From TrEMBL:
<dbReference type="InterPro" id="IPR012675">
    <property type="entry name" value="Beta-grasp_dom_sf"/>
</dbReference>
<dbReference type="Pfam" id="PF22196">
    <property type="entry name" value="HdrB-like_C"/>
</dbReference>
<dbReference type="InterPro" id="IPR054018">
    <property type="entry name" value="HdrB-like_C"/>
</dbReference>
<feature type="domain" description="HdrB-like C-terminal">
    <location>
        <begin position="419"/>
        <end position="505"/>
    </location>
</feature>
<dbReference type="InterPro" id="IPR041543">
    <property type="entry name" value="DUF5644"/>
</dbReference>
<dbReference type="Pfam" id="PF18712">
    <property type="entry name" value="DUF5644"/>
</dbReference>
<feature type="domain" description="DUF5644">
    <location>
        <begin position="100"/>
        <end position="206"/>
    </location>
</feature>
<protein>
    <submittedName>
        <fullName>Heterodisulfide reductase</fullName>
    </submittedName>
</protein>
Length: 511
């Protein structure tokens, strides 16, 4: 039997004797049937500290809370690991953290609720490790684990739910500042995200919120003003394959995405049409008035179905919204009935058979048969970093596309985070966090950046200079592209208007 080995750099620190941690390298030989705790037990350093009872650590920046099989972990993280505590700032001894220090920041909250039993107060310790899953840096932030603890208390004390919800609705440090955890957690799960989303829905859902006129009621009200069905539209005289979705947030610069999509489909001789679609709600759509959100999504799908076309989404945000809405509509006869009544005055009817597609999926699977790539790609020797995978349960994989283009693409973990949704919640924080991940990508030495999201384009291109200033870094004008622009470049297109490059804030200098 061949010897199986892990190369592990281990976070080592002793708060009593050291000022800074070290990351010594060690080799651990393992057996195929081992689990994570077996590896930890065989770390060849004296007095290595970790919590064997309540497991919690990071492997390559991803949080692990389960004693998983080593074979599964190797498949996910390969055989080169960096082991770290969940929060280095609370490190006590190696992977062990100072639980007393972590809990001390919540003493005022516990004192404000003297009716909680000792057992209920001690329950908080089971949640605090969740605070450290994401890398978002925000001084004073209450913590994702704390929000989940409050949610647990709300279920135990329904008559006090309003007060508990108020305690996490703070305008600077509360639950509305949450950023998705799922990409920094293994095994991957939406469970924690969904639980915190439920709290956000309570605050943004207007009259349904137990706190009248709360700080965040304006989010739902602003959304309600943006939903509007367009006047009756004339369908195309001939059959087309796609209706391009264009119901984007007016604040965002959708011109580069839509123009490059038109040009690419035309280049590929794919028939399409553009009619006016309803605004899809953006990030906060599903958190506000669900009837308006589903009505808008139902309208767009019904419009495409009426003309016999597939509704084509060109960015990840809008596609994720449509998937979410279609699942609700298709599984709920009650919602279907409500939406049919809303659509009837517009001469439309929702059909579960309505088809939709995601342009980046088509590009990645070569469904569109992208002939014409140069045998010696113009991207040979160039590299990029891809921002995407924020909202989809099964993110698209682009390796085959990048291989065909001879383009080296970095897909770092930090690029799976987006802070665009925080613009309406805390603009300076949104800009600083976006600048942070933008410069992390630029510092990889890439030639340009890629995104699958219009909202991320808004952050990393339109607002990039403003974000650089807040981040206190000299602005770097490294440009950002959408995948249809990338495909057009690979097909030899050089006209900046055709590519949609003429409206970018950061000029593209590759061609």
């Amino acid at each position: 039997m061949s010897i199986l080995k892990l190369q592990i750099r281990v976070f080592r620190f002793d708060a009593k004797n050291q000022y800074n941690p070290s990351y010594p390298l060690c080799i651990v030989e393992y057996l195929p049937d081992w689990r994570l705790k077996d590896v930890l037990e065989h770390i060849p350093f004296p007095d290595f500290g970790y919590d064997a009872t309540h497991l919690g650590l990071k492997i390559n920046q991803v949080a692990i809370f389960e004693n998983l099989p080593i074979s599964e972990l190797v498949e996910r993280f390969s055989v080169e690991w960096v082991l770290e505590p969940l929060a280095a700032e609370y490190a006590l001894k190696d992977l062990l953290m100072d639980e007393t220090a972590i809990l001390s920041q919540y003493q005022s909250f516990l004192q404000s609720a003297p009716f909680l039993t000792a057992s209920e107060q001690s329950e908080l310790a089971k949640y605090t490790n969740i605070n450290f899953i994401t890398p978002k840096k925000q001084a004073g932030y209450y913590g994702d684990g704390f929000f989940l603890y409050v949610r647990w208390l709300m279920n135990r004390y329904p008559t006090r739910a309003r007060d508990f919800l108020q305690s996490i609705a703070h305008d600077k440090y509360g639950v509305m500042h949450f950023v998705s955890l799922k990409n920094y957690l293994y095994p991957p799960s939406d469970r924690l995200d969904e639980a915190i989303y439920d709290l956000q829905k309570m605050l943004t859902h207007g009259s349904a919120c137990p706190i009248a006129n709360n700080t965040w009621a304006h989010v739902g009200k602003n959304l309600a003003l943006k939903y509007a069905f367009p006047p009756k539209q004339t369908p195309p005289s001939t059959q087309v394959a796609f209706l391009i979705f264009n119901g984007y947030e007016k604040l965002f610069n959708s011109a580069p995405l839509l123009q490059s999509t038109r040009a690419l489909l035309s280049r590929l001789k794919v028939e399409f049409v553009e009619l006016t679609c309803c605004f899809d709600g953006g990030y906060w759509g599903r958190f506000g008035d669900l009837e308006k959100f589903l009505g808008a999504q139902g309208y767009n799908l019904a419009l495409a179905h009426q003309i016999g076309a597939t509704l084509l989404f060109c960015d990840e945000d809008s596609y994720a919204n449509a998937l979410y809405a279609k699942k609700i509509l298709d599984e709920s006869p009650e919602w279907q009935e409500k939406i049919q009544k809303i659509l009837a005055p517009h001469g439309l009817q929702y059909h579960p058979e309505a088809q939709m597609a995601y342009l980046n999926d088509l590009l990645s699977t070569d469904f569109l048969d992208l002939e014409g790539f140069a045998s010696h790609s113009i991207f040979t020797g160039f590299s990029t970093a891809l921002f995407g995978g924020y909202h989809l349960a099964q993110p698209t994989h682009y390796n085959a596309l990048f291989d065909r283009l001879s383009l080296k693409c970095h897909t770092p973990l930090f690029a799976t985070q987006s802070y665009a949704h925080l613009l309406e919640i805390d603009t300076p924080l949104a800009l600083k966090q976006s600048a942070s991940i933008r410069y992390e990508a630029i510092d990889l030495g890439v030639d340009f950046l890629l995104t699958t999201s219009l909202s991320q384009f808004h952050m990393l291109d339109t607002l990039a200079q403003k974000a650089s200033k807040l981040y206190q870094r000299d602005h770097d004008n490294t440009s950002l592209l959408f995948l249809p622009q990338l495909a057009l470049l690979a097909l030899g297109e050089t006209n900046k208007q055709t590519l949609g490059l003429d409206t970018h804030a950061n000029p593209f200098s590759f061609i």
